[in-house]
What does this fold into?
Amino acid sequence: MIKVATIEDNDAYRKALHTLISLSPDCEIVYSAPDCKNVAEALKTICPDVLIMDIELPGIKGFECINLVKNQCPSINVFMLTTFEDDDKIFDSIKAGAVGYLLKKDPPGLILEAIHKIHQGEAVMNGKIARKVLQYFSEKKEVSKSIEEYDLTTREKEILELLMKGASYKEIAANCSISKDTVFSHIRNIYKKLNVHSRSEIVAKFR
It folds into this structure.
């Protein structure tokens, strides 16, 4: 039996979701709530196999709640079921530890299938969300390639990376075992090759 928990603040949708889940003879609802207020403590004793939650919830947002839940129940599999298709919300959820991301407009059968697949160790996303994820990693790869086009030396690439991480000139000098004057010299060359005039322009160029 797959133990399922739901966190959804829309009462009507939560009831509809429970009705859908009850159609599967090997699934049972072991916990349900409209928000994340007491979820960490509650799931500590129940520890469901699958937790389905919305993102926009009263108080703590869904993706902010994932870490709290997984700290109490590391084996839990979380997937987001929401109306939001924003890139930020998708990646915030995935980075927090969600293994699935479906939309409420997805077919009911896909939601039931997701519960079983996630319980079996698979990740589940609808086609549109999966495309966004693939596009994100593709863009990250293109950014890495674009740095190579500027003919930076190995040292300049090292310093560029530290600049983008927000390191101070003193920290860069210590990290590279060079003097601050040498750091300034490398940074002048980096600015010239990249055709920028400040650290913020560098970040904007490669974000």
Notes: The mean pLDDT is 87.
